[in-house]
Amino acid sequence: MRPIHWIIVLIVVLVLFGAQKLPDLARSIGKSAKILKEEMNDLSQDSSSTSEQTSTSEPENTDSSK
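and the corresponding structure tokens:
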């Protein structure tokens, strides 16, 4: 996006939400982004620990032909 597009978006946000509500809106968006980031990290850690458990626990070789 060009800089003029960002300026237009900021003006529209300012008109829609008003200057007094912008700090609260920005704070809320920041908190939501932080929560989303933490959850994504938790999910990636859970999936990596699950894959480690499945790769380290190999099935025993049971030969029933003996």
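(Above: one complete record from the training split.) The chain has a mean pLDDT of 83.
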